[in-house]
Predict the structure.
Amino acid sequence: MTPSEIRALISSNLADNSAITAVKHRAVENELINYSEGVSTQVEALSTAFLATLPKNIGWVGNFNPGSSTTLTFGGNVTNAVIANVAESIISVTVLNAMPSMNYLVKGYVESMGGLSEDNTVGAVVFKKISTSQFQISTGEFDNENQNLKIHLEVKSLD
């Protein structure tokens, strides 16, 4: 029943000064319960659909100087980050929440933690999936500057 139909049922079954029977009272109560259960199911479905659009892992890798062997810092849902190839500035990253499949996306955003004029000479963050909980990221630098970068990461399932 729609809300209007339920209102009409209430008006007819629960009219003022009426000797309402238990059957009519239960009919109104059952329709209210049925309606609320339907709304609850819709809310649950919308919540599930909305949560699926959010990243499953959000974290960061810091103290990154492309082309240099540095000890990286990391946080959020990033549980490990190590330099895999110094010359090519490749970082291996492990995340806390495994993806449901290899169908996922890694977004990287570079933040300058040092001087902006030195830290703005890097390219886009590129990623390569290794497993459902591990991937590699890399970025190239255009000048041989000493940099201090923090790469913010969002990992989202595409399933």
Notes: Strands lie at 57-64, 73-76, 78-85, 90-95, 104-112, 126-129, 134-138, 149-157. Residues 22-52 form the longest helix (31 residues).
